[in-house]
Specification:
255 residues, 16% helix, alpha+beta
Length: 255
């Protein structure tokens, strides 16, 4: 496999990784971010070249495309780890969803280098998840979101949204990360507002854990590496939800 690393304003992996070789101290999101701007000779190698970072193996199937290869890699990772930081990704600006919980390329974790390992054990003993033909079965702390201000750019209404806490923090500011979910049927959800992560100052409530299924979209749009790199500028804004509550959201705007 041949590849070249690209910094493009994003920190590369810390040098002490090479000194002690201890990969356990880094979250899945952090390790994914190291490969966010990696360019490979074959597109599938964007996923295959990371197997060693996570101690997993998937059979190379050249010709399947980078999207399917990266999906298979993530499915293998969740078999051996319950670190929810794997879901701490952000789509390119303008791609609102619906989406599942899996990223479509390492690039979507380009800004996750500060995300630490999730603390799922502090919520409940049940923290494992499985992938089935109807989506990802997972236990998430879930909280309904008050109506957000109108935002036509999302292409859908802002009612009926839920925040699913990943129970991992950014070591940059100690904020907790959550993703937006929308209920579609019973206990089935999809990720919406996929180009955002919600930031909260407090951890999720211990009694908020729910069993749900997050469906994967099998028809995700594909973007070229150039289109992805064009969206790597960071923008942090605050969203006032009520007179007593404000949530921050983290988005990336390439405009």
């Amino acid at each position: 496999m041949e590849f070249t690393g690209r910094h493009n304003g994003i920190d590369a992996h810390p040098s002490h990784v090479f000194e002690d070789g201890d990969m356990t101290r880094y979250s899945i999101a952090q390790k994914m971010s190291w490969a966010a701007f990696r360019e490979t000779t074959k597109p599938e190698d964007q996923a295959y070249c990371m197997m060693g970072l996570f101690g997993v193996n998937i059979p190379p199937l050249y010709g399947e495309g980078c999207l399917k290869a990266f999906m298979r890699l993530q499915q293998e990772i969740i078999k051996v780890s319950d670190d929810c930081s794997i879901f701490a990704w952000i789509a390119r600006i303008g791609e609102k969803g619906p989406r599942g919980l899996f990223a479509k390329s390492p690039f979507e974790l380009r800004m996750s280098g500060e995300v630490v390992v999730s603390e799922t054990g502090t919520i409940d003993e049940i923290s494992s998840y499985t992938f089935a033909n109807n989506g990802l079965h997972i236990h998430f702390p879930l909280e309904e979101v008050p109506d957000l201000p109108s935002d036509d750019s999302h292409g859908d209404d802002n009612q009926g949204l839920f925040l699913a806490s990943l129970h991992c923090q950014s070591k940059k500011d100690d904020m907790y990360l959550s993703v937006y979910l929308r209920k579609i049927n019973g206990q089935q959800y999809v990720r919406c507002r996929a180009d955002e992560l919600a930031l909260t100052s407090a951890p999720p409530a211990p009694d908020s854990l729910q069993n749900l299924v997050v469906k994967e979209n099998k028809h995700l749009p594909f973007f070229t590496r150039r289109q992805e790199r064009d969206s790597a500028e960071e923008l942090v804004v605050s969203v006032k939800l009520s007179d007593t509550m404000t949530w921050d959201r983290l988005v990336f705007d390439g405009s």
